Give the backbone structure.
Amino acid sequence: MTDTETDNATTVTISPGITITPAMQDYLKAVYQLGEMGPVATQQLAEALGVAAPSATNMAKRLHELGLLTHAPYHGVTLTPAGRQAALDVVRRHRLLETYLAEAVGLGWDEVHDEAERLEHYLSERLEARLDSLLGFPATDPHGDPIPRTGADLAQGPTLLQTPAGAEGTVSRVSDRDPEQLRYLGALGIVPGARVAVVEHLPFEGPVRVRVLTSGNARGKEHVLGRVLAGAVRLAS
Ligand SMILES: [Zn+2]
């Protein structure tokens, strides 16, 4: 998305004369999602957003000037409290839309993300509030990702990759990025609410062997998950 694609989209006014365009919203959201472990390199942001490195750097400078993030050359970018709030607002709209599309429209959990990516920029505050109440104020989206309440922050449980062998837990969230990945995990019964045990981490940075303890007829089966897949599934903290 380019900066000029603001027609009809919801721009957010944070103070007189300053609006956050859809491109800015996408950028802030990406910094939020990639930045759990610390500053995010602009190169990493460029890859996540599918833009050229110089435009990712330019956007970092603009958002820095607006006080939404701090940009230290060679260290990457970090959200300011105002930037974090703006990112959470987008995340909230995205996850509410995914829930609406799954529950009210009947789309599959592998279909809702791409639609929500577009719609999140067009949802007014008023419609957002109506969807929220229509859905009964849901706590999580179809992938188990928590829907942030206004002003709240989000806790993260460990991924299967970060869970030691012998431990078990309840799947809380599955990354919504990749529809094929969602279909694959869904077929294995690895969905939010399922109970799983990590059996073994194969040596030399190998895959992770997991057993599904409760999830319909997938129960009791063992699966070997590659590291990307194991990193996409989180257990409740
Ligand atoms: Zn999504």
